[in-house]
Design a protein that fits this description.
Strand content: 15-25%
CATH topology of the largest domain: Beta-Lactamase
CATH architecture of the largest domain: 2-Layer Sandwich
CATH class of the largest domain: Alpha Beta
Family: Belongs to the HrcA family.
Structural class: alpha+beta
Order of helices and strands: HHHEEHHHEEEEHHHEHHHEEEH
Keywords: Repressor, Stress response, Transcription, Transcription regulation
Distance between the termini: 42 Å
Protein name: Heat-inducible transcription repressor HrcA
CATH superfamily of the largest domain: GAF domain
InterPro entries: GAF-like_dom_sf, HrcA, HrcA_C, WH-like_DNA-bd_sf, WH_DNA-bd_sf, WHTH_transcript_rep_HrcA_IDD
Number of domains: 3
Function: Negative regulator of class I heat shock genes (grpE-dnaK-dnaJ and groELS operons). Prevents heat-shock induction of these operons.
Radius of gyration: 24 Å
Shape: globular
Strand order of the largest sheet: 7-3-10-9-8
Largest sheet: 5 strands, antiparallel
Length: 356
């Protein structure tokens, strides 16, 4: 649902989120009047906060309490009301350059040092995936008709692993074409695709510009995009998916982690279930976050139960144009987003430069 806010409502939402981030206490109209130059009366602020609550951007944890941002409120705040803090980004870049000597260290040692620095600077749990030496490049692919109207895509990678996906052919307005005609078209299309994408990594396939396909193959463009997206989704990460983790002790002091059971679940995820966490951090399909460099998953947007009260911010680092790893921070949804996003983005840029 699209939510349209007036400038005043946006300003009050921004102030409410900022105040809650700073205090961890439900926010009332008096606090906003005292600390922010809103140039309106407390009654006007209360009315605006009531509207924001009705549309699901704020809520009251108790009847007599002030209001707290919801996950949707944080989403509006991140997407519309802030930009990454450039001063923080410059500070992170400078500290990394000053503290780390990438000429003398191994890259893994550099990652370990960077993880500790980012945890200290951000105050959140830092997660950095080790670079993947195996990028699953396409060696050969073949489109095969298995039933009328159904096609299997078979992809062989440079390590001779095979991925396959079965999908329905796109419907055409004309009568159903002859099976032999489809076989010939699929062979031609297979040859064309092999010439275009052999040597590319699987992670690149879902984001190729299919508009460049020859016009004779345009009817298959959406179909092929869906096929390759599904292949990438099914591709298992390499057996070694180690994530460097720093800053746990600091973030667990936040009031959001006061329940022992919640802490146990989070620690188990970080220590014993990195294979579940890894694909959330090393996300290579940019279509899910509208082409933005940094992915921000807030609260209930996270599919894993132990972090559904947390925010996970991540960005890939690259070797050339290929994403090989990711850097992220994990903390409570009550996070200073403009700083955290800047930290992650600056660190990803630094690691990409260091790796190349």
């Amino acid at each position: 649902m699209q939510i349209h806010l007036t400038n005043r409502q946006q300003h009050i939402l921004w102030a409410t989120v900022r105040h809650y981030i700073a205090t961890a206490e439900p926010v009332g109209s008096k606090a906003l009047v005292d600390e922010y130059n809103l140039s309106v009366s407390p009654a006007t602020i209360r009315n605006a906060m009531g509207v924001l609550e009705k549309v699901g951007l704020l809520y009251q944890p108790h009847i007599s309490a002030g209001r707290v941002p919801s996950d949707s409120g944080y989403r509006i705040y991140v997407d519309q009301l802030i930009t990454p803090d450039e001063a923080v980004a410059r500070q992170v870049e400078q500290v990394l350059q000053d503290k780390l000597n990438r000429d003398d260290w191994s890259f893994e040692a550099l990652l370990q040092g960077a993880a500790q620095i980012l945890a200290t600077l951000s105050g959140y749990i830092t997660l950095i995936t080790l670079p993947q030496s195996r990028t699953n490049q396409v060696r050969h692919l073949q489109l095969v008709q298995v039933d009328p109207g159904r096609v299997m895509l078979i992809v062989v990678t440079d390590s001779y692993e095979t991925q396959s996906v079965l999908m329905e052919l796109p419907q055409t307005e004309s009568s159903a074409p002859d099976s032999e005609v489809i076989d010939r078209e699929l062979q031609i299309l297979s040859n064309f695709l092999n010439s275009q994408i052999r040597g590319r990594s699987l992670s690149e396939l879902a984001t190729l510009d299919w508009i460049q396909l020859d016009r004779q193959f345009q009817q298959y463009a959406d179909f092929l995009r869906d096929l390759f997206t599904e292949v990438k989704r099914r591709t298992k990460p390499p057996a070694v998916t180690q994530i460097l983790i720093r800053g746990v002790s600091e973030v667990l002091r936040q009031p959001e982690f006061s329940e022992l059971q919640q802490v146990k679940m989070l620690m188990h995820l970080l220590e014993a279930e990195q294979d579940q966490l890894w694909p959330l951090i090393f996300e290579t399909n940019e279509s899910e976050n509208s082409g933005k460099r940094v992915t921000v998953r807030i609260g209930s947007e996270n599919p894993l139960e132990p972090i559904r009260t947390c925010t996970l911010i991540s960005a890939n680092y690259f070797h050339g144009s290929v994403p090989v790893g990711s850097v992220g921070v994990l903390g409570p949804t009550r996070m200073l987003y403009e700083n955290a996003i800047a930290v992650v983005e600056a660190a990803a840029d630094y690691l990409s430069e260091a790796l190349s």
